Amino acid sequence: MTDPIRPTDDEARALARGLMDDATFAALGVMDPDGGGPMLSRVAIAMDPDAAPISLISSLSAHARALAADPVCSLLVGEPEDRGDPLTHPRLTLQAQADPVARDDDRFVALREHYLALRPKSKLYIDFGDFYLVRFTVRRAILNGGFGKAFVLTPEDLGL
Amino acid sequence: MTDPIRPTDDEARALARGLMDDATFAALGVMDPDGGGPMLSRVAIAMDPDAAPISLISSLSAHARALAADPVCSLLVGEPEDRGDPLTHPRLTLQAQADPVARDDDRFVALREHYLALRPKSKLYIDFGDFYLVRFTVRRAILNGGFGKAFVLTPEDLGL
Questions:
Q1: Which chain A residues are within 8 Å of B72, Cβ to Cβ?
Q2: For A55-140, where are the alpha helices, taking DSSP H only?
Q3: How does residue B79 score in pLDDT terms, banded at 50, 70 and 90?
Q4: Is the distance from CB of A27 to CB of A76 less than 8 angstroms?
Q5: Range in A73-82, B15-24, B40-49, B148-157 the model is least confident about
Q6: Are B125 and A147 in contact (CB < 8 Å)?
Q7: The CATH number of domain B23-140 is 2.30.110.10
Q8: What CATH number does domain A10-158 carry, 2.60.120.460, 1.10.101.10, 2.40.300.10, 2.30.110.10?
Q9: Å from B155 to nearest chain A CA?
Q10: Of B40, B62, B140, the CB nearest to A27
Q11: How would you class B8 by CB atoms within 10 Å of its CB: exposed for 0-12, middle for 13-18, buried for 19 or more?
Q12: How far is A96 from chain B, CA to nearest CA, in Å?
């Protein structure tokens, strides 16, 4: 078999970082704590001051319960915008560990301000008691820039 | 805690089925065969004659290698179309088992015709030797119709 992974170059690094920076939401994959394997959902995302992905999630959600049991997860960002073949649109897979920033965490107040500035619509629910922030520590990323354009990236490639 | 899951009704069933029928692509979550937990990617999808999701994938892809090792997976369909809060747009999580329909499988010829009729752009690659079809047997679904509107659905609820 041909190895479909190309050598990482600056164009791939810039494309991947741009997909992260432009993302307002992502697919999140967690382990189903009831033994059902991977389980996907949609979450809002933004980038923290260190350029790492963060999300605001509810402790009532299935993914919150799953992340509490196993913080190893994956995100997919880069959404098709039009009616062309969606597989030609670049997308980025992140493999990560979810680090909860609870409401009583020392980091919460500053990170709440940061998130709220970037996502002002979240003011409708950010102060509900069941909402908290999650920071994703990226371990590895896979960029798919379209057919035959796959790259494996490190945190350093993403400026992390 | 309040149980955020509502009783399933016909409106939820119709919304969920509509999200499947309208989907041309999905996020796919598989288990990383290298032990990295959930791993997401984007796949093209369509519905087979029995209304089950199918996809055309390359054996060179990371998700194909993962599904060969562990067919338990998850799909997410229902894409935001505009600039509103993406979390208000309904989406559907499917928990499923991937059943490969290889090029030498008795079902391949008919399913290829069906897929090609629904996704004519795939004629550019459907006959490449590394591409094959996958049928997803849905075990359980979670519909998120927007904040506070979550439902758990059975295959029967989806007409499967």
A1: 36-38
A2: 62-69, 108-118
A3: confident
A4: yes
A5: A73-82
A6: yes
A7: yes
A8: 2.30.110.10
A9: 15
A10: B40
A11: middle
A12: 9
Which one-letter amino acid corresponds to residue B1? Answer: M
- A140 reaches B (C-beta below 8 A): yes
Secondary structure of residue B101 in the 3-state scheme: strand
Residue type, A32: D
- Partners of residue A62 in chain B, C-beta under 8 Å: 142, 150
Query: Is A43 in contact with A119 (CB distance < 8 Å)?
Result: no
The helix or strand, by DSSP H or E, that contains position B111, with its residue range, turns out to be helix B108-118
For this complex, say whether ipTM is above 0.90: yes
Q: What share of chain A is helix, strand, coil (3-state, %, to 5)?
A: 25, 35, 35
**Which of B2, B42, B57 to mutate against chain A (most A CBs within 10 Å)?**
B42
pLDDT confidence of residue A83: 65
For residues A57 and A106, the answer to whether their CB atoms sit within 8 Å is: no
- Band (pLDDT 50/70/90 cuts) for residue A3 is low
8 A C-beta contact, residue A143 and residue A94: no
Q: Which residue of A has its CA nearest to B32?
A: A95
Which residues does chain B have within 8 Å of residue A4's beta carbon, measured at their own beta carbons? Answer: 58, 60-61
| A94, A53 Cβ separation under 8 angstroms | yes
